[in-house]
Design a protein that fits this description.
Layout (H helix, E strand, L loop, with lengths): L10 E4 L2 H6 L56 E3 L9 E8 L4 H13 L24 E9 L6 E2 L1 H14 L9 E6 L4 E2 L7 E10 L2 E9 L5 H4 L13 H20 L5 E3 L15 H4 L1 E2 L5 E2 L1 E3 L2 E3 L4 E3 L3 E3 L3
Helix pairs in contact: 2-5
The structure holds 2-acetamido-2-deoxy-beta-D-glucopyranose (3 copies).
One 2-acetamido-2-deoxy-beta-D-glucopyranose (NAG) binds next to loops.
Length: 324
């Protein structure tokens, strides 16, 4: 299918549905619209609506999003396997902290990845299988972290991303593992020139790096575009006291599960190219799951002693779920 022609274009975590029309290649990526209004002009919050209503199971006052733009084909169709590679073992996740990172923010994201495997959240992955009908394990682990002090500057491009990943694998002496997922996590002063904060919150892609087919993703700290890439939290408080980092937590989960189930863009997606997290994007579970956090914010998932607000994921047969 024509999809193949564009297989190397990243699958974006989108939020301007209009770009789907304006830039045809985007119709092949897993469009993930986010709250759009106010992103290009952060002061324009007029169109923000106070709930996720139709896409989540109810409204919880306090969590607001700028009208998630979920226009386009329905996200509820059957997700299908297209024959491509999926890793059924424990998935090694590597974090490249790019730019300036505080140890507190790193520990929020390290802790999430170190402990998410025990929550039942990643067990949703076990509803998917490989070409031999073997189920995915649903296990992930943080296999390494690396600090990159702006090696390609404050603006990352599609091309320089490859260098960032390649350099980290070399310097940190990580394996070049086709079954792993490598994340570039940009600090709040780091841009991605393909449209971070204006067209997407994050995306995953793949390339041959050190001779292996490496799955990797970019997720930036959306402090400059919270109303586009993070839920607007009650009183601006987020569960781990940094709305940008808490916003990243959910986007990292999104790109992680999609890299695992569709890392080469030829495995699990539906008839409209929605991958498993696209199908539940900006759905935090409404009043069924959202509850008050210790610090007065709202959250939906206990991960060890920490609390996070993460989007639901599409279970192959049970639809959007917080845990398997
Ligand atoms: C996988 O399982 C499905 C349903 O149980 C079956 O229809 C299909 O033939 C199986 N495929 C393989 C490769 O075993
Ligand atoms: C990062 O690079 C800047 C400028 O090159 C330098 O001033 C700073 O000390 C570096 N930071 C670390 C942690 O290496
Ligand atoms: C990010 O890069 C894009 C493309 O070069 C640019 O249009 C945009 O203004 C940049 N954003 C920031 C916050 O620098």
């Amino acid at each position: 299918m024509s999809f193949q022609l564009f297989s190397r274009f990243p699958r974006f975590f989108h939020f301007f549905a209009c770009l789907l029309i304006a830039i045809p290649i985007f119709s092949y990526v897993s469009a993930v619209p986010a709250p759009a209004d106010g992103v290009r002009n952060p002061n324009n919050k007029l169109k923000i609506t106070p709930s996720f209503t139709s896409e989540s199971n109810g409204d919880v006052s306090g969590i607001q999003s700028g009208s998630p733009d979920l226009s386009g084909p329905p996200r509820t169709g059957k997700i299908k396997y297209h024959g491509g590679f999926v890793n059924t073992g424990t998935i090694d996740i590597y974090y490249i902290y790019y730019g300036s990172w505080s140890s507190a923010d790193r520990s929020t994201l390290d802790f999430l990845m170190n402990n998410i495997g025990s929550t039942g959240y990643t067990k949703i992955l076990a509803s998917y299988n490989d070409g031999n009908n073997k189920s995915l394990s649903g296990n992930v682990r943080l296999a390494g972290t690396f600090l990159d002090n702006y090696s390609v500057g404050k603006s990352i491009t599609d091309n320089t991303m490859v260098n960032v990943v390649s350099n980290a694998i070399k310097k940190a002496q990580w394996p070049a593992d086709p079954g792993a997922v490598y994340f570039i996590l940009g600090s709040s002063d780091v841009n991605h020139t393909s449209g971070f904060c204006s067209d997407f919150c994050g995306f995953h892609t793949f390339d041959t790096i050190h001779g292996a087919d490496i799955k990797y993703a970019f997720v930036g700290d959306p402090t400059k575009c919270l109303d586009g890439c993070a839920p607007l939290y009650a009183n601006s408080i987020s569960p781990n006291n940094n709305p940008g980092i808490d916003g990243m937590a959910s986007i990292i989960m999104h790109e992680m599960v999609e890299s695992i189930t569709d890392g080469d863009y030829d495995a699990w997606f539906d008839d409209f190219d929605y991958e498993m997290a696209d199908k539940c994007v900006w759905n935090f579970g409404g009043s069924t799951f959202i509850k008050p956090a210790r610090n007065g914010a709202l959250y939906n998932l206990d991960v060890g002693q920490n609390q996070y607000l993460v989007q639901l994921l599409w279970h192959r047969t049970k639809q959007c779920r917080l845990t398997a």
